[in-house]
Amino acid sequence: MPARTAKQGADVQFLFGNYALDMERRELMRGSELISIGPQVFDLLVYLVQNRERVVSKDDILAAVWSGRVVSESTLTSHINFARKAVGDNGEEQHSIRTVARKGFRFVGRVTEERAPRESAHSIRTFGAASEQAARANPALSLPDKPSIVVLPFQNMSGDPEQDYFADGVVEDIITALSRMRWLFVIARNSSFAYKGRAVDVKQVGCELGVRYVLEGSLRKSAARARITAQLIDSSTGANLWADRFEGALEDIFDLQDQVTASVVGAIAPRLEQAEMARAKRKPTESLDAYDYYLRGMASYYLRTKDGINEALPLFEKAIAVDPSFASAYGMAAWCHAWRKINGWMTDPVRDAARTEQLARRAAELGPDDAVALSRGAHALTFVIGDHDTAASLVDRALALNPNLAGAWYASGWVRVWLGELDTAINHFAHAMRLSPLDPHSIGMQAGTAFAHFLAGRHDEASYWVQRALWEQTNYLTTLLIAAASYALAGRSGEAQRITARICELHPSMRVTSIKDWAPFRRPEHLAAIEDGLKKAGLPE
After folding, report:
1. Choosing a second label site near 530 at 20 to 30 A (CA), which of 31, 111, 471, 504?
2. How much is the pTM?
3. Long-range own/partner contacts, residues 388-394 (CB < 8 A, 24 or more apart)
């Protein structure tokens, strides 16, 4: 028997126990109480009820509810749990939704179907006229000229209404943290909490609030642990852009709340940026403004190739020309010059260094409250100009402004490497990787960790981290230099020579004596260590 979908029988409601599942209204009622569930949980519940005569597999559910899109096992599990919770079920008793081992799931509650009661034709016409009047009085809000998001109140799945405060507190912290990102338009808490306890459609929310993205989720707190699930949705299409689960011990409730907030913000920020970059690339060229130039620049920058950087830099410069107060664009332009130096791509080092310093200092002047501008400017100042003290001051301010910005921790890690504060550098790189495990800068975080271990004399640890970086990319000069020196001093001469041959292939002019102009070490002994390692690896002097 073919599977039925939620599109069939839209005027039907399913009755089971004290519950009514209304297809047309997309509502789940328990008696007269409206049960708040997310749109995908609703679709999942409908699919299970409609196909109650058989066991449905995970693949069946993914095809029906997520249209075959790849989602994580944890996402599917959490949605099954949400559906169970919504109908007063749980994973142990399974009165309504039963797990069939190695097969899938089946709805086993007793269900009857009937046509949903509807208003009379007169009331429908009256309501329709009123809706049209309301629509004319309150037209849909236009989208802001930058990415926009609303964080809806998270569902409290603990079974204890007294725990609402914890779920609400996490959401408020997420809203506050996102609001620190100047490139993002965030709906205020008072407006987003107007949806608390309501069954909502994300497309309607996006229209009513004038936002492109909706973050929704749930929280379950037990005696000793808390688990939060969250998903980011494009309100214009209903597409799920990202979903994940976060869990921790409740030894200190406020620390856990901070950790969860940092994890969620650190995870969704790159997704938002990536979604916006993809959107900007689809826009007609003639409609570009400063922010679109910036987004296109970011898309090219993340290619992390010579051609990509050469495309990104003029795009950031165009963004600056359109909006001379765009601090983040100055910071990214400065960092493109730094990236050229890192990879040996500068064509006029003196001129490029002067422009880098001008851009980085202007980013700091224009963006004293812009963590992106400050961290990018700091990173460029420390590597290209060697102004470590100013860089440390700027990046510390960036971290104070937005402690959830993985890029600021990444920049701080490199500032500390060049300053010689090696353990601090390792800790800051680790924090960046924890905030953004899939970050496009992960290779730089791994290479920086390797470099710090190398300079601390821990060559085996350096070799481990450099190997991780090499898995990411095999032509990143920083990784190759650290790998060659680490392998040589760890006694892995064959691997060191192989990496050195790769360096000479990509950068024929690279010499041991070039390192002092490439790496802005504050401590002479650190320069001597890398030079010694590269000599032993066979790099020409």
Report:
1. 471
2. 0.59
3. 388/415, 388/418, 388/419, 388/520, 388/522, 391/415, 392/416, 392/419, 394/364
